[in-house]
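Chapter review: from sequence to fold.
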Amino acid sequence: MKSQIVLWWVLTAFFFACTVTYTVWNLIADGYVEWTGSVALLFTSFMAGLIAFFIRRNHQAQQGVELPEDTLTAEIDDADPEFGEFSPWSWWPLVLASAVAIAVIALATAHFLIPVAAGLLVVGLFGWVYEYYRGNFAR
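The token string follows.
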């Protein structure tokens, strides 16, 4: 966890240096500050600092317990948590992703496709929730 904290603080400093360099470069080259890029880089620096602060606070809340990634004697299996049960054969996440993709494209171009995307989303959600209640994998 210590290596992650250091990495995020280094990224914070890097993005802040990029912000300063970008702003000064624009002042020298164009004579004015290009606010969009300067503010975006500054907020990127703030975001990296926020992540570094959050990870440091989590490390303190864990009373300094080291993660397996930080110890040199750790085995690969030490950092292998149980995430839950997933269906590697399931096609329903693809249906849901297609529904969201159609909805986004419909918002950008053809608004008449929004009900189609909504219907596909409902079918995909019901299919994904109830996939263990029918077919070969029913319990």
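Two observations follow directly from the output. The radius of gyration is 24 Å. The mean pLDDT is 89.
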